[in-house]
Amino acid sequence: MATLTRLPLETYLLAGQAAPLECAICRHENRVSAEACHRCSAPLSVARIQRDKKRPASVIACIGASGVGKTAYLGLLMDMLMRQVGSLKTTLLGPQSISLQQATTTALAAGWYPDKTTRDPEHTCWVHCRVECGRRRRRADVVFADISGDTFTDELEHPGSYPAVRAILEKCSGVLMLADAQRLQAGEHDDDYILLKLLSLIGELQPTPKKWSRRKKSAPLISIVLTKADTTPTAASEPLAFAENHASALLNDCRRRFPKTEVFGASVTGASGYRLVGGRRCCVPLRVEPQGIVEPFAWLVENMA
Fold first, then answer.
1. Contact at 8 Å (CB) between 128 and 92?
2. Sign of the C-alpha dihedral, residues 226, 231, 236, 238?
3. Distances (CA, A) of 156 to 65, 136, 153, 163, 172
4. Mind listing the domains of the chain with CATH numbers?
5. CA nearest to 296, candidates 226, 205, 228
6. Order of strands across the sheet with 89-92?
7. Residue 154 to residues 38, 177, 194, 284: CA-CA distances in angstroms?
8. pLDDT tens digits for 202-253?
């Protein structure tokens, strides 16, 4: 015998699922239940956290050629910030923000450098953190991503291949520009051309200097980080003089385009060696001895705040 049952129709749940969720990086509309942006693969948790805030998160662009050490630098940076090293008090927001720190510290503890970041946008590590800085302990939400250096090259050669790159460069308030000090001292300037192209792209996507004040947006801050400074003592002790001698074109272009530019020297390890793995020589860290890791990031955040 059939029985009748009365069920209430909770239509408000359907309406909530139908409302789009705008990505905080590229402004693409996604399903409210999605975890990553369909267009740029950025985590939508950033948009959910910032949805009820009046001030959006500041975006920092971490740029550099392949092999300059972005993953090792950024991963160790987050590990030191979580340990409250320096004047910044940092809180990670979202579980995906810990992936970069975990991968880097695990690899360094095992005597290896972290694996090279792949081109796949789904494997890009995103970090969303809340930083307290300055005498008044002002809070600022910061978002950045560890994007592969090959991705930057592909985007420059084939515009539109990776939407996240242009979205980050267009929204960024600060730039961590990583350059290999060892290559610069050896006279290898292939990486400079990639950075010069990225600077030109930032200038193209960002408002012109005359429009910065109209849009209530100042020029992005540029922090040039000379990585692997343990192999070049001058880069660690006198980074500005090193940049003027070995990367004058890059430094002058930064100063001409962006008023606030600083140069820092940084190193993750105190010394590196080589180990034979499968008949190939692989560079490995002999000891973890971070130097100048927090200062470039702290300078950006304090000036942005």
1. yes
2. negative
3. 12, 41, 5, 12, 18
4. 56-304 (3.40.50.300)
5. 226
6. 89-92, 125-133, 138-146, 58-63, 172-180, 221-227, 261-265
7. 20, 18, 11, 28
8. 989 887 655 545 445 678 999 999 999 988 889 999 999 999 999 999 999 9
Residue 59: CB atoms within 10 Å: 24
143 and 58 in contact (C-beta within 8 Å)? yes
Tell me what percent of the chain is helix, strand and coil, each rounded to the nearest 5.
Answer: 40, 25, 35
Instruction: Tell me the pTM.
Output: 0.88
Q: Which helix H or strand E contains 30, and what residues bound it?
A: strand 29-30
Tokens of 126: 């995103």
3-state secondary structure of 176: strand
Residues linked to residue 249 through DSSP beta bridges, in sequence order: none
CA–CA dist 27, 37 (Å, integer): 9
C-alpha separations of 268 from 125, 228, 251, 255, 265 in Å: 19, 7, 23, 27, 11
Q: Angle, to 10 degrees, between the axis of helix 70-82 and the axis of helix 294-304? A: 70
Angle at 159 between CA 72 and CA 116, to 5 degrees: 20
Nearest to 17 by CA among 32, 2, 34: 32
